[in-house]
Description:
Elements: H1 4-14, H2 20-28, E1 34-37, H3 41-45, E2 53-54, H4 60-67, E3 75-77
Parallel strand pairs: 1-2, 1-3
Amino acid sequence: MKTLKEMLVEARQAVREDTPETLKARLDAGEPLVLIDVRDPDEYRDGYIEPAVNISRGFLEFRIGTAVSDPNTPIVLY
């Protein structure tokens, strides 16, 4: 059985991480992507990055299909 540390290493190898500056450049360039804010709705209402949609972490697997219809669309979570 893998340790938590091993699973995190694997995840970091498979999942790209962007800096805020890189994300801004992608949005400014009009790159087609779906931006999802995974915080709780109260936190989302306090402020979010345009054009983010709010899907709380606990509901992500149930609602991701409503936010992303094309499986080839890049998804950015924050």
